[in-house]
Amino acid sequence: MKKENMILWGMVLLFAVMMSVPFLVPHTGLLALFGIIPLLCAERIADMSGKKRIWIYHYSAFVIWNAITTFWVCNATIGGGIFAVLANSLQMSLVFGLFRLSKRKFSGTLPYIFLAVTWIAWERFYFDAEISWPWLVLGNAFARSIGSIQWYEFTGSLGGSLWIWLSNLSIFGLLVSLSDGSIFTWNWKAKTAAFSGLAALLIAPFIVSATIGSKYEDAMVSDENLEVLIVQPNIDPYNKFQAMTQDQQNAIVEGQITKELAYRKNDTTAAPLLIVAPETFTGDIVVGQYERSRTWRRFTTLLKDYPNVNMLFGASAYDYINAAEAPSYTARDLGRDLWVESHNSALMIDGTARTEIFHKSKLVVAVEHTPYPRIFCKIDDMLGGVMGRCVGQGEISLLNVKDVEGQNTKIGCAVCYESVYGEYYTDYIRKGARAMTIITNDAWWGDTPGYRQHLSYASLRAIETRRAIARCANTGISAIVSPSGKILQPTPWWEQAVIKGQIPLRDDVTFFVSHGDITGRICTFVFVLLLLALAVRFATKN
């Protein structure tokens, strides 16, 4: 029994390592095509030996995988990081538990089909759930191996999840056939079909990707481009207001801007240019009363000397509401019938004092957002208000880059965590965004894999939508991301930096943008059918 336990725990550890490497090491996404096999083998060995409490093994496997890949969350919040690891692992384990339940009523390959579609249905649900942490969607494993996934413009990241499951289950099935000797009873046609099918499954996506990707080799060259200036101020968020005032922070960014744009001063003929500054750059924005902000006044005044220059920056923004009773569950009481609602926002301004604002909608649970506010905001009040209560806007809106003639170029701005959500992100393009920006502040995680993973997910969004991205991070990594997902001009970590460049303006729409997550919808449909069949079999005791 001791030897068997060692084998099982070895399989658990091997699974966790193999599935972690693609999220940590560039160009290792291929490993995910084999990474689940150890866990499937462990489950089979435990089953054959009649072992009880098999859930301990698969739950431990998911805990180790989550811990290795997302331990960095603890840098921002130890309690939140531990909870994220344990809770996310539990949800993964519940999927595996359903699979084990299905084996009691389904035979052959059907339980494994059920496992794959259940997992992908869960991933899709996770994108829209009130409590959402879809960081380890399986298809994200290829984010740093973009040469193999140019076909994401059709399937999105869940297409990658399906590829991983099909590959792992196919290889596992052949290994089982080899171990029990059944493969030796197959005729040559069956063997040829099995191995040819597996080869096609493993190789064809690379060929398709290379074919599709070749169309975008020159994607950064376009008839229409937008000049961008990406400003990385490198301000430590943990000492943001202890170490310096907002005026001092503004002075850093102003100095970076004026140094780079001296050649454009008072030039009315220059092409439109977009300055991008990071998420939560300022904390003094009152919605609808922008003139009260020292930051807003400073930069609208600065931009008067730079015609055709627009500036996009992140802000902690506030709505102040006079009311006898709370206007919403998320509003905080300031006393004397005054309430405040908070937003994580992006602002677009220019030298005419024109101001557009967008409120981040995909908010980080607990840190920014209290889930199920009707219930948990009351609990949070009793705890002294420890959870975030930011309010997002219900529907995506675009921002406009203007020239002196008033012509608009529509762009989208995904604020930090929003860039993890593929189908949500496509709404920007459906509404007419010709290019994208991402503003973020990844410094909370320190020098860990977290900010590198977050950057790599921008490549997925670029491929899915074929829109270039101007990405600005407070402390790095800022970059331009091409429509093929290539990371261009990446800045160093924890250094002040400026990127000058151009991004193409595109109007084409990908299949994924037009039709959404078909892979996820089909898998969810199949999951529901199989779940109903399973319920019927339990009900009829078949």
Short description, anyone?
The chain has 542 residues and is of the alpha/beta class. 44% of the residues lie in helices and 16% in strands. The chain is globular and about 80 Å long.
Write the layout of secondary structure elements.
Layout: H1 2-24, H2 37-48, H3 55-70, H4 78-102, H5 110-128, H6 152-155, H7 157-179, H8 188-213, E1 225-232, H9 246-260, E2 273-276, E3 282-286, H10 294-303, E4 309-322, E5 332-335, E6 338-350, E7 355-359, H11 373-382, E8 399-402, E9 408-415, H12 422-430, E10 435-440, H13 449-465, E11 469-473, E12 479-481, E13 487-488, E14 497-504, H14 511-515, H15 518-540
Parallel strand pairs: 1-2, 2-4, 3-4, 9-10, 10-11
Antiparallel strand pairs: 1-14, 4-6, 5-6, 6-7, 8-9, 11-12, 12-13
